[in-house]
Amino acid sequence: MRGYDDVFTESVADREAFWLEAAKALDWHRAPSQALDDTERPFYRWFPDGELNVAYNALDRHVAAGRGEQAALSYDSPVTGTRRTYTYAELTNEVALFAGVLRDLGVGVGDRVVVYLPMVPEAVIAMLACARLGAVHSVVFGGFAANELALRIEDALPKVVVSASCGIEGSRVIEYKPLLDRAIGLSAHKPGKRVILQRPEAEAAMGPDDVDWADAVASAVPADPVPVKSTDPLYVLYTSGTTGKPKGVVRDCGGYATALAWSMPNVYDVGPGQTIFTASDVGWVVGHSYIVYAPLLVGATTVLYEGKPVGTPDAGQFWRVCAEYGVRSLFTAPTAFRALKKEDPRGEYTRGYDLSGLKYLFLAGERLDPETYHWATELLGIPVIDHWWQTETGWPIVANPVGIELVPIKPGSPTKPLPGWDVQVLGANGVPMPAGEDGAIVIKLPLPPGAFRTLWNDDERFVESYLSAFDGYYLTGDGGRIDEDGYVFVMGRTDDVINVAGHRLSTGSMEEVLAAHPDVAECAVIGVADALKGQVPRGFVVLKAGIDATAEGYAAGLRGELVRMVRDQVGAVASLKEVAVVPALPKTRSGKILRKTMRGIADGLDEPVPSTIEDASVLDTLRTVLRGDR
Length: 630
Ligand code: COA
Ligand code: AMP
Hints:
Structural class: alpha/beta
CATH superfamily of the largest domain: ANL, N-terminal domain
Number of domains: 2
Distance between the termini: 53 Å
Low-confidence stretches: none
Bound molecules: coenzyme A, adenosine monophosphate
Number of strands: 32
């Protein structure tokens, strides 16, 4: 039996052969003769002469191979009391019909379609329908507010937007249509038509440019899959960078499908006919890769769950779903397990559910703290697999490849690099750090298939943000170390990106909102540790001269306004609840805000006072504010 070391060594010894072999898991319209094209470095291309259709690979070919009656997608929505399973034949049919709708609205190869939908099957259908036409979807997470949606519409310039009348958050109905209308109002680009899924929980008022999903599908003619180049974009997924402007991560077709198809048996140990339950959201990369594309590419069954791990109706829903659908691998974020632990510390809600089919728990999206790791391991008695990746990479960089071999687990480490990822740790001077010492985690170029090609319409920002810090390396933005056994430890972001309940957010976008308040002279937002959500944002504002913060009720009123502004403009998901008024922010003599120092103080570290600081006494005030909260 080949073990992890053998497979990793093979991937390094003959990269071409390794990935061409992996590509054989797909049905190509034109099979690739070459794996990597590095002629336009640093813009690498995978399978340059290959042609395929990703939706065909995810659907039709399984029907053709006799799996038409097998479950492809099981939608389970405790918040609406709905369950529905689509077989491969049914899902193929629905996708072909919706592709027909989009085609009638003028969508063709390369056109963008923004998808702003809650966790309903139509989200998966819309994504696959775009892929079927060779169009490029851009899914926007439902927890983002109108302003964030507008930014994405303006950048992606979609021909059509697909949305719904509402989403459901616990017992609350969140109307999406007014948000969409506001976003389109804000955006300089006006998409032609909006297809709206009417949900019974809230009927949306329709305008002249709105098309009702059900009506359109009723009269649609199914569309066939359109073969496209392997290197053509499959989707653009916006993610938070360090500034308020989101980054449009561009994913190709052939490289991505190959990497995902490789990862399913080797990392997640899920194959045809087996079930994976990824409790995330289609708006995040985890949802794109492991709710939608990867399970379907390998002929597995995917569970689409609309709800939270706790709350409506209780903390037993994950266990019910695992038992009911025979889930083999469960994948979610550590936060979900922290929420379960808080609600049900003794795991009483697992009682009565047959979890014997559940073989692994996969966790990613944020650091897995050892306490949560141990709790989950004891609760379930199965391997708990921490793994590390990013929107940019599309699939795991570092993981325990249980489908090949269960490598001994070291709590706190997502284990070892997967084939294709040459992970290194560098010091500020670009010199490799000795084993066990912290530095910037980087990946030597080229990145493997599946990783992003560039940023949408912004090659320059791609190079500047990711490739310019260390020549020949991709800067992950995470800091950490590699120990003497080759285990990678990811300790956290080194930039202004934060991770709130497994949701990646930019402190920069929140700062832009705070700075727009007429009383605010300057501000900073940093991520502070939170027992449930891992991190939560915390704002600090300095007021304009002449404003009396001590006036009765002023500070509380201002805080309320600022919190509301961030909720309205970035979204509820930002979870900014605390804003403190401070007399000054710590800065360097050249005026740069010392965010790292602020983060250190917030985390209770004994941060050394930077030699570049303009006025060290500012730190004392900050310590007092933060200590007052603890
Ligand atoms: N549409 C509209 N609003 C949304 C939303 C969506 N799709 N997703 C979240 N929100 C809202 C929530 O309702 C909440 O609003 P509130 O402040 O009015 O209560 C706010 O955004 C913050 O959401 P969240 O951070 O998710 O907190 P929560 O208290 O609702 O739930 C957890 C906490 C831990 C249960 C939840 O975050 C969870 O299940 N996380 C799993 C992690 C995950 O899926 N990560 C994705 C990457 S793997
Ligand atoms: P996203 O792009 O939303 O997937 O977020 C990616 C970021 O989440 C990474 O850069 C890390 O900071 C963090 N992250 C994801 N998985 C892990 C993990 N297993 N351990 C530590 N951090 C993680």
